[in-house]
Amino acid sequence: MDLQILSSVLMSDIRQRLSRAIVVEMAAVVADAEGIDAVTLQRIANDAGVKQPALYRHVSGIEELRMLLSLRARDELVRYLETAIGDSHRDEAVLSAARAWQKFVREHPGLYSATDRVPSVGDPDIEASLSRVVITLSNALAGYRLTDDVRAHCARSLRSALHGFCVLEKDHGHPEPQAIDAGLNNLVELFCRGIETLEN
After folding, report:
1. DSSP secondary structure string for all residues of 61-119
2. Going from the N-terminus, what domains does the chain have, and what CATH number goes with each?
3. What is the pTM (predicted TM-score) of this model?
4. pLDDT tens per residue across span 81-94
5. How far is Cα 153 from Cα 43, in angstroms, rounded to an integer?
6. d(Cα 151, Cα 149) in Å, to the nearest integer?
7. How far apart are alpha carbons 176 and 87 in whole angstroms?
């Protein structure tokens, strides 16, 4: 089939099947390929072969689309973390979580950037998605002898550390980019040795 005809057929199929989930999927693809700033309603409409007003059947505007991307990012991050952590224990679990976080950001830099475009408080869905990330990290710390409150605080601290480290890598902010993996290992080592001082 001629490529132009094939493209026309595919675009027609997208127009017929356009849904909220497809809009988010298309936005995620653009974000990872070109950066989060490339995600606009006009761009998604153009890619879908529809007029921009057609998107309002599925999202209320760019703010909601960014929120949906943020939710998707955290849901996928949790899947990466859970798969990597598995049955690992103590330091191994923390290192597995750190590497999974880094892997997700490397593979989905634009999608991950969406998490910084939406406030972390004020929306129940966003707050719940963030809570799932923290709970997953807290579960990774279950091998340490910590009270529930201390474990929760440590999980939030670990989230902050991994987020900051991976954003610096994503945005080329590390002073020694050739030693990023070693830097992540050192971060985990410091965290694990510190958490041992909190064990009861």
Report:
1. SHHHHHHHHHHHHHHHHHHHHHHHHTT--HHHHHHHHHHHHHHHHHH-HHHHHGGGSS-
2. 3-55 (1.10.10), 67-197 (1.10.357.10)
3. 0.87
4. 999 999 999 999 99
5. 41
6. 5
7. 33
